[in-house]
Amino acid sequence: MGNETERAKGKVTEIKGAVKEGLGDLIGNEQMQAEGHVEKVEGQARQAVAKAGEQAKGISEEISGKAEGAVGTLIGNEQMQAEGKAKELKGEARQKANQ
Question: Is 47 exposed, middle or buried (0-12, 13-18, 19+ CB in 10 A)?
Fold first, then answer.
């Protein structure tokens, strides 16, 4: 299952928990309120784990791109340099998108 799917499922769980927590507070049901809070926190944690996975992918892409670009420079291959730079930038963007 992809990290984006996990993030979406985490957001759904977070929202569901927040609604349940609010409803429990509204009607004075402490158990419902507590269960909702737990669900909300679980959803937030699931999202955080997915973000961390995407950040790790971004770091890997950035490093791989830098290496490919360096090899391209070393052997004088402009296409390899460009592909490496593109991969590096993609990795940086993935990291920024998942901060």
Answer: buried
Show the DSSP H helices in the chain as ranges.
Answer: 3-27, 30-75, 78-97
45 near 10, Cβ under 8 Å? Answer: yes
CA 59-48-32 angle, to 5 degrees, is 175
CA-based R_g, the chain, Å: 21
In angstroms, the CA 38 to CA 55 distance is 26
Report pLDDT for 1: 57
Flag residues of the chain having pLDDT under 70. Answer: 1
